[in-house]
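#structure-requests
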Amino acid sequence: MTAPSRAVALAGQRLRRDGVQLTLWIVGAAVLAAATYAGVQSAFGSDDARRSLLAAALANPVILLFRGLPSGAGEGAFVAFLIVPFLCLLAALMSAFLAVRHTRAEEESGRADLVGATSAGRMLPVAVTLLHGAAANTAFAIVVALALIAVGLPASGAVVTGAASGGVGLVFLGFAAVAAQVFRTSRAANTAGVSAILLAYLVAGVGNALGTPSDDLQRMESAWPAWLSPFGWAENTRPFSDDTLTPLLPALGSALLLGLGALASSRRRDVGASFLGERTGPAEAHPALRSPTSLLWRLSGGAVLAWSAGAVLAGLLSTTLGSVIEEIGAENPALEAMLARMSAAEGSLEQGILTTFFVMIGIFAACAGVQGIVRVRQEELHGTAEPVLAAAVGRERWLGAAVVVSGIAIALVLTAGVAGASLGIAVSSGEPDLYRSAAVAAGGQLVAAAVFAALTALVFVLAPRATLPLGWGLVATAAVVGLFGPVLGLPDDLSGLSPVAAAPVPVGDGTDIRGLWWMIGTAAAATVAALTLMRRRELAPGG
């Protein structure tokens, strides 16, 4: 078999394996882009409403930490301000997971040895993975552009939007491919990739927040930190305004260098080896590792701390921005109405802001909870579950330990969010009633996050192979509905299907319980079913 034939065969294998996942990433991004345009027309249909919101963002630059780069009040430019960073985020995550899945994860599972036993060589699998990822990002860019053109936006801006998101995806495709050469496990490589993505997102936000606004408060010129981040490069293409592709040149250059680095690194190490070896553990285990619960906590504790750190920051912003945005909302009825939908009609705008941020914190908590369940699936896949179950540990007790760890993780993340909110109230001399509001919002999100963890546990028992895609897919879908539902103008009945959006919220001096009872019932029923059915389920290391 010739080298081109081997490459085609490997590419076909990757395409068959990734077809469903890539379709969900790409089509989901396109639907989000098109729906954002429809939402802007509904919620910010007038030029005055869009100008007012942009002026609010530029007058209070900390808002830009979580949005794009303002480039004008036109419909297209306003859509780009809302959606470009999130499209880039989706492309980056898609690319990073793809790169690790076909490199380091293949080596962990032993499948890379089978490929290496042929005449493929060491570099070909990495090279094909990079080409496969480049094709996926090209498809991502094209489909997003077509979606924006289909809703009536100018083709030039749509093409720039697609190119910007695809360019960011290429950068992190190369970064994750290098991380897969450096780290010993796919978990470490994925963690490095996601951490780099979130850091780059934050650096771009800081650069935008520190930028120079125009006199009419409709446009922001990024400060230098934004130019250190692929997200900053993408946002400075300014779709539907300047429509320039020049800022993407650093992205293409970085992607090329990282790809070449991954290829060169693959030649200098053995299959299964890494440039950073695993740490040598102690000769004897700590007494705290005598139970499956403590062992799982030891394996998951670092990730929980990371989610908790994000929750503290979001909680702090939830109460320090409230008074500022309340003043803005009085001048922008569209913004006030959107925020009111996320709390309740009787609630104050400050409560609406707090509720909005606690939706984000609830998503962090759900991620921490799902990650705890996904961890046992990874232990099963890697064969490390067998030594635990060979001891006096039943299968239901093993899964029960994961459920307990997930519950602790959820509670810790939300407690961190309340702590951040309380600090913000104390620093900004906010209303004392906001302490109660933060506690109520956190309690509601705790129930919502428990639903995700319980459903993921049930999927783990019934369909082990679907644990990762379904567990994270449920969280991702709920996050889009919860965070973008009001912007997209989604019906309340549809938004209510997302646990993070249906969670109880503070309303004045009371509480709107919303979907509390059905969420408690769902979480309890799924947990009991998972633990009961686990007694009859055999280990499925490769299935």
